[in-house]
Every structure is written in structure tokens, then in C-alpha cells.
Design brief:
By secondary structure, this protein is an alpha/beta fold. The protein has seven helices and seven strands; from the N terminus they run ααβαβαββαβαββα. β6 and β7 form a beta hairpin. It is globular.
């Protein structure tokens, strides 16, 4: 089930260029299945909990490197695509992912049927991005410019005080 759900995003990720960051990699889905399916792409499995990083290091393919840290602490505008599945409510996941993506790249979020697309679109606008037409179960956010000053916000702020 996790494998199938991860691979539902393969086409969306494959059409983007450059390195991929899986934000909040956890148990490795969707990052590890996608890295195995796209062996010529560089993947970063970003995880804030060291215990989970140890698991990821033991199972990551050769084209994936594990980084222990929070999204808010990473270099901005660095990746072609950021992916997130079951990370946080979609507006919060968007705020964590979009600063990592370079201009022209995209954030791909796995979402449930209750995701508030309008709210995510408003958050995307504040981060120089726009919501693209997306297949069911996903939100694709296209980065239109550099990350605005003031982002990413301090660690924990996105969840504590989500953007409106």
C-alpha cells in the first residue's frame, strides 16, 4: 500500500528537473520508492528525528542521502522539487517545502480529499508560488520566484501560527 501510494507521484516528480528533497521522510515513503524508480536523480531524505534517520540510512539507495534536520534550517531555493506525504496539514507542508525549491521548480504534496486547496493557494502566493492544476490526491505548487525575505520562519512557527 505505501509503495503503491508513493509511486502514484512518480510521473509528477519525474517531470521536474534537478535534485528532489523528501521533507519529513520518516519511514522512507515516498522518497525511497521514488529514488529507486529514478536512479539517475539525486534525492535528499530530510528528517528531523535521528532515530528515523538511522532507519533511512540503513535503507536508502545509492542516489539518496539522509540529512538530519528541519526544513526551516536548510538552504533555500536549492532543489528542483520538494515532496511531502503525511507531513503536516497541507498549508503547513507547503510553507515547509516551498522555500527549499528553486525558481521554476515545484512542491508536490500528497493530500487527502479534505485538503483546502484555496488555503494552500493563498500560502503558495505568499511564498512566490502558485497552485497548478493537480491530479486527485495531490497538490502541485509551482515556484515563480525566489523565496521572499522572512521565510522560512523560525522552527515551529508554521505549525504554531499557520499562514492564512
Amino acid at each position: 500500500m505505501l509503495l503503491d501510494d508513493s509511486l502514484r507521484g512518480l510521473e509528477l516528480v519525474a517531470r521536474e528537473e534537478d535534485a528532489v528533497v523528501d521533507v519529513g521522510s520518516g519511514g522512507g515513503a515516498p522518497g525511497i520508492p521514488l529514488a529507486l524508480s529514478l536512479p539517475d536523480r539525486e534525492f535528499v531524505l530530510l528528517e528531523a528525528q535521528e532515530r528515523k534517520c538511522a532507519f533511512l540510512r540503513a535503507h536508502a539507495p545509492a542516489n539518496a542521502r539522509v540529512v538530519h534536520g528541519r526544513a526551516e534550517e536548510q538552504e533555500v531555493d536549492a532543489f528542483g522539487v520538494a515532496i511531502a506525504k503525511a507531513l503536516a496539514p497541507p498549508p503547513v507542508a507547503a510553507e515547509w517545502c516551498l522555500p527549499l525549491v528553486r525558481e521554476g521548480g515545484a512542491a508536490v504534496l500528497w493530500v487527502g480529499p479534505s485538503a483546502d486547496e484555496d488555503h494552500v493557494a493563498r500560502v503558495a502566493e505568499q511564498l512566490n508560488a502558485r497552485l497548478e492544476e493537480s491530479p486527485p490526491g495531490f497538490l502541485v505548487l509551482r515556484k515563480l520566484g525566489a523565496t521572499p525575505s522572512g521565510f522560512p520562519r523560525r522552527a515551529g512557527m508554521a505549525r504554531k501560527r499557520p499562514l492564512a
